[in-house]
Amino acid sequence: EQGYFRIDYGEVRGYSYGGSGYTEFGNWVQAFGTIPTPAAPSVNITAFPSTTVSSTMTATYTTGGVPLLLRGTLGSKWTKWFDMPISDSVGVKLGRTNGEGDVFLQVRDYAGRVSAPSLASTRFDNTKPTGVVQINNGAKTILAGGGGATNVHLTLSMFDNNMNGAQMRIKKDATFADPGDSGLWKSFATGDDSVTFSGTGTKKVYVQFKDDFGNLSSVYTASISVSTTGTVFPSALLVSAGSLSINGGATLISNPTQTLTYTVSDPTSLNVRYLTGTKWSVWEPVTGASMAKKIVFARGSGMRRVYVQLGVATGAATDPVSVSVLQDTSLPTGTISINGEDTAVEAIGSVTPVTLTMTATDPDTPVISMAYNQTGITPLPGDFVSFEMTVTGFPLDTTILGTKKVYVWFKDLAGNVSKKYSDSIKVVL
Fold first, then answer.
1. What share of the chain is helix, strand, coil (3-state, %, to 5)?
2. In the prediction, which pLDDT does 37 show?
3. What is the pLDDT of residues 144-200, one digit of tens each?
4. What DSSP designation does 300 have?
5. Helix (H) or strand (E) segment spanning residue 120
């Protein structure tokens, strides 16, 4: 009887120290007023960093009703229920996947009622930038300058998911010695003329990149031989590549193979090369003022960037220009539950309304839609509706009693569809 039991007057005795020996519990009756039922439990995440380089976070929250238990998920699997912490905060481990990190919290009260989920998001990035550094576009030698001072030109390329405000620092002859070299940081650029070598011999330059989150790249080096018989580095090339576009101006792709288009101000006797990773392609002829080039990016998800550089046979070249695109090939993940923690529901005729609670996340692009049914049949594109964490009144088919399942699929902004998720509930009279 839900934890209560019935006894007759005088049936139960308990021994009482210091008293008459036994206390006749059943000889006494106490009456209480009606205790009002507390409001349904609720939870609301009030503080969660919007960006982070640490995979360990703290979420602060407030609650309503009288919750006793708390659980969380990053979007794919709920933790077990645990006692409400004394403080109104909980630690969150984001894992290793860089990108959008979502955390959902739920609470449950003594009556087994479960709150709607509360969602907070952060942008997580602890990945080091990468880059490519060349002196005089990769030349092996250079003619020593007058007075023992030789100016060189650096060609620089950087790759990172977050580099709108990227920085770099450059040093010659010796690598960086922090904190003494912390003042060398400046805005990232694809060309730099700040290095002047003295004397002759093999000379080195050291370069390091920093992304918007403060992550530092490895230290990259490039070398060149300065001699009295070296090659004269030509002046900058006065042509330009413009209007760079991937897939007709797309900012989001799900296929690594794409078409890069761009224009050239003067294609006469020009060559071009491309960079999408750690090594420049070979120089190839420019065939016209409007160019199209097949580009194959690295597999997986993340920001992808391609650099374009124009040059001529004499060695003169432009500074590279680039265009970026977000590549999303990862599937969303999610959860579904029917009527919270209920394991059974009473049938109300042939159709019984139930509540579906869903969570879903994707590290690259937002989850924008979902499709659900009781059949488990893969949905058609038109079956998807806007993603919501709570769907009330789902018409569960209860013409036949027994265990019923509801299936759900999630779709992200790039069009990737998750695997099938489901939850079950037993239908009884």
1. 5, 50, 45
2. 78
3. 998 889 999 999 999 999 999 999 999 999 999 998 899 999 999 999 999 999 999
4. S
5. strand 118-124
Buried b (16+ CB within 10 A) or exposed e, 252-283: bbbeeebebbbebeebeebebbbbbeeebeeb
Nearest to 45 by CA among 75, 1, 89, 77: 89
- Extract the tokens encoding 343: 């394991």
CA-based torsion, 180, 186, 191, 192: positive or negative: negative
| DSSP letter assigned to residue 195 | -
**Mean pLDDT rounded to a whole number for the chain:** 92
- Sign, CA torsion 192/194/199/201: negative
Residue-wise pLDDT for 257-278, tens only, equals 999 999 999 999 999 999 999 9
Preceding omega of 36 cis (within 30 degrees of 0): no
Q: Residue 220's closest CA among 283, 307, 306, 131?
A: 131
The mean per-residue pLDDT over the stretch 109-117 comes to 92
Tokens at 202, concatenated: 């093999």
The pair of three-digit structure tokens given for residue 300, joined into one six-digit string: 């997986």
CA pair distance 253, 413, nearest whole angstrom: 10
C-alpha gyration radius of the chain: 33
Q: Which residue has the tokens 């490895």?
A: 218
HSE-up of residue 155 (Cα within 13 Å, Cβ side):
24
Helix (H) or strand (E) holding 192: strand 191-192
